[in-house]
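Notebook entry, structure prediction.
Reason for the run: the old model in the group folder had no record of what sequence produced it. Starting over properly, with the input documented here first.
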Amino acid sequence: MIDSHCHLADEKFAGDLDAVVARAKDAGVERVLVVLEGGSASESAQAERLVALWPESRVSIGVHPHQAHEFADDPKRATIVVREQIAKTPAARAVGEIGLDYHYDFSPRAVQQEVFRGQVRLARELDFPVVIHTREADDDTIRVLKEEGGGRVRGVLHCFTGGPSLADAGLALGLYISLAGIITFPKAAELRETVKRVPLDRLMTETDSPFLAPVPHRGQRNEPALVAQVLGTLAELRGVERTELDRRTTANFHSLFRP
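New structure, fully documented this time:
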């Protein structure tokens, strides 16, 4: 199994990172992609610790739309920060998570868009995939990816919660779609229906830990070992054997991130 998006560099894992890694391995998780906040020294340090514990783990680095306001005076600086951090991080394999979030609007929308645009251009330059966060901003997210990606940016819509239109737009751009614990929630019936339209060769699994623990662990701290719940639910939903879906989603991860 693969956890294609988690936040093991978060301070919530600082006290028991070794145990979290051990549980993931015991559950059959082959590797994880750990998302780092661009410019965060503490997350970079914990990521180094993680790679020492689990050499197969890889990282993605980007400025999240929630932090875009920190670069409001000079949005181009966000790209510089991410570029420099990737250059000194051997385990880096992607730019992200990046995108737009109009639900919380922690950062002005114009600033979010400029920071997002610069990082998509950086991904093109580095030939790295992008890890996309979009919330209540689907049209603008797809527009920026079309305008700045030029049809040459690979990537994934992470923790997908959108409807058929976003799924279809993402697939048309060649993006993968990654499902997290939300797919197990009782009220996620519409999401489960949308997921049925996604080809198996475009699906991935994630936890987004420490957030969004799947049923029956909802409300607890999430961790990579629990990606097994996501995989099991997705296999049942798609009517395929769990081992076959595991094989397919693992191959998709390797195809996109080239770990």
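Summary: The mean pLDDT is 97.
The old model has been moved to the deprecated folder.
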